[in-house]
Prior knowledge:
globular; five-stranded mixed beta sheet; Rossmann fold; alpha/beta; seven-stranded mixed beta sheet; single chain; binds NADPH dihydro-nicotinamide-adenine-dinucleotide phosphate; binds (2Z)-2-iminopentanedioic acid
Amino acid sequence: xxxxxxxxxxxxxxxxxxxxxxxxxxxxxxxxxxxxxxxxxxxxxxxxxxxxxxxxxxxxxxxxxxxxxxxxxxxxxxxxxxxxxxxxxxxxxxxxxxxxxxxxxxxxxxxxxxxxxxxxxxxxxxxxxxxxxxxxxxxxxxxxxxxxxxxxxxxxxxxxxxxxxxxxxxxxxxxxxxxxxxxxxxxxxxxxxxxxxxxxxxxxxxxxxxxxxxxxxxxxxxxxxxxxxxxxxxxxxxxxxxxxxxxxxxxxxxxxxxxxxxxxxxxxxxxxxxxxxxxxxxxxxxxxxxxxxxxxxxxxxxxxxxxxxxxxxxxxxxxxxxxxxxxxxxxxxxxxxxxxxxxxxxxxxxxxxxxxxxxxxxxxxxxxxxxxxxxxxxxxxxxxxxxxxxxxxxxxxxxxxxxxxxxxxxxxxxxxxxxxxxxxxxxxxxxxxxxxxxxxxxxxxxxxx
Length: 449
Ligand code: NDP
Ligand code: 2IT
């Protein structure tokens, strides 16, 4: 129950309107619980109807995506774009292709994206989209035909000043290439800034591929330093997932002196007590889209265990969940705490359930929430848009330097906000409040209707 009657009313309305959207309710409630702590100081939010407006997407688009498989059979998927908030910039956020995709998941992701994008300090609104299409096991030609059909409809709703999609689960460089090709053909215009995460030879930015994982480690390093006088040096790290975010988090954590000992995919996890050999992982995952199980067949001394949640039984100093939402519940969190873990930072979006976050915070484990910790991906997307506008490309070092500065500033911004709210160290509170206040002020100054 929220203290504020106003916020409780907003929450009840969101739940009543869409009773089946559990992930969306979860994201909204976590945000409202933070806002509950400062709402008394801001009567203008209720007076002007800011919060009920904030939790309702500006626009939700759903569409049919028909495509022909390699057997010549017509398949039909569903496509979505949730354009949540465009107060501080064009809608911005990834596309997820995964069989579990539905409106609840995309609304939670779009909602989080508003706050995350606000924290980057770059001018980007919040959105998310995708499809229940499963790229796993599909040929390149099938993925291409799907992407072309998806973009044939999506193109009428996006644009470099309107809405700029990028990748997320199941959408990487290959998919962005096909999507961009179709946008260019259908629109007859070379508008590089309409998508981010593009290939380097057609407007992509250096570091975008690495950005989420690198950014996660930069923010975690700053948190360890400021809040514990510590660092990655000599630490044991467990990272869930083995996709884009996990791989480059593993790379940067290792560069910063840590030993990463476990990675997973949706089937199971590998444990390599000597430290993960990332070249082998890249060869499996980026080379031929294989399963993480292969690692144990190739690297002596490592083991594979079925079931992806078991990864959290591997003891570590630092836990970086980088797979998907709600992978860590209260029970897993208690296991992590018991093992003496000192920090948890979310690379995935909402990988920790609310009970898990409570466990970490009560036990004094440093906790960095996704909307701050994984903001490096979209921040570098913002830098890609800047470069596209300038028709110029920065060097790797230049983009990396800017990314590091952005992540360090995000940490300090949310740390300060938590302190100002009277809860020093509560970075969940700090991220929600710092992210929201900027957007709310703009909504107030632009007028809602
Ligand atoms: P990828 O598709 O590259 O990798 C996803 C990884 O997570 C794979 O190892 C996958 O295993 C695993 N995974 C996916 N779904 C599930 C599931 N339901 N249960 C268990 N494991 C699962 O995606 P990314 O690395 O890009 O994304 C990972 C997370 O990071 C997501 O939460 C995403 O929203 C978030 N994120 C991504 C950003 C980006 O720039 N890409 C930016 C910020 C956040 P399998 O191969 O078996 O499916
Ligand atoms: O969740 C995310 O922040 C992303 N998938 C990246 C979005 C983007 O527009 O780069």
